[in-house]
Specification:
Layout: H1 3-6, E1 9-12, E2 17-20, E3 29-33, H2 36-40, H3 42-60
Antiparallel strand pairs: 1-2, 1-3
């Protein structure tokens, strides 16, 4: 783990809280994110990325 990651935000999927630095086990966190707000919007960001990837996949078919 680097000091750089200690300044990033993570979303704890168990507690549904943002955490500064990778505090929770990797199996319970999403990230890193640059801001606390982004961490709190982790599920929305994942949904948007998945939607874009699905659209791209349809374009390849």
């Amino acid at each position: 783990m680097t000091a750089k990651n200690d300044k990033k935000w993570y979303f704890n999927t168990r507690t549904e809280q943002a955490e500064l630095g990778p505090k929770s086990p990797i199996s319970e966190r999403m990230g890193p994110y640059d801001t606390e707000e982004d961490a709190l919007n982790a599920w929305k960001i994942v949904e948007e990325r998945n939607r874009k990837w699905e659209e791209q996949d349809r374009g390849w078919r």
